[in-house]
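SEVERITY: medium
COMPONENT: batch folding queue
REPORTER: lab tech (J.R.)

DESCRIPTION
The queue accepted two submissions in a row. Attaching both inputs and their returned structure tokens so the on-call engineer can compare them side by side.

ATTACHMENT 1
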Amino acid sequence: MATMIPSDDVEFATDGERQFYGFIQSVAKPDSQFLCWYTPDIEDKEPDFILFFPKIGLVVFEVKDWALNQIQKANRKSSER
């Protein structure tokens, strides 16, 4: 498992963030080389996750908890709302 910060007693804002935390914990291998922060405060910005791996660098994840019934319209060619 990757080194997760914080590692225990985590209160998640959404169910999707809880699931993603578990996913990163289980798939980030070799675990001793991965660091993952949940909601770090970086100069008043707070991404959901930051994953660090020396060979790759930093990857920032923002988890969106959308359900199919919330999507009213989807189009590959347009991002209009």
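ATTACHMENT 2
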Amino acid sequence: MLLKHKKSSSFNIEDTDVVILCGGRGERLRSLINDRPKPLAEINGKPFLDILIDYAAGFGFKRFILCAGYMGDMIEDYYKKKSAIFRILISNEKGPLGTAGAIKNAEPFIKSSPFLVLNGDSICRLNLHKFLKFHAAKKAMFSIALSKMKNSGDYGNIILDTRTGRIKAFKEKSELKNKVGFVNAGIYILDKSIFSHIQEGKKSSLEYDIFPKLTAMGLYGFISDKAFIDIGTPERFKKAKKLR
């Protein structure tokens, strides 16, 4: 599928890279899963990472870059043995880099601009075609998918100008307890210029270190009505087992 940008540029979904952040240690989930990295935790008999890849592949994406850190050799071995109709590349991390550092580390593998980013421990089944069209229509450099949630303070909150779609600010967890708000759904569309904002070899976070600095440049939020599900804690992991 070819999507056209209003500035006459275009990009093909089949040629658009999907970067999956799967390097975290998953320490909060150790009481349930300690023999594998968190993204390989099974949901109804299927590794969560497979669920994510199948979700994106369903929209036509064919090239996946896995940012693997903690127990990354298991992720690499798993996909070496698994046959697939799409290409899977592994960006190995020698030490903890955080979500931003992981993307910077994967820079040599990333060919497309923009590229799609998925968190390896959460899913929000929004329509990725609509998200890409939104990004192009806004002539955005960086876009974040947002999920509307009742108890948004549990995740941190994003303040959005709903008229323009521009993100104005980020609020920390607990500031908006028990209130409806927009939360980061862990899906991003990023221009390759993002690399110039991330220091190489240094641990840093997209959510806390990079995105708040980009609001002045035109950081956009795409609202989805799809549920946001993550597997980061034992309680949330058990809820995620209802995933279909």
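NOTES FROM REPORTER
The two ends are 26 Å apart (CA to CA).
No errors were logged for either attachment.
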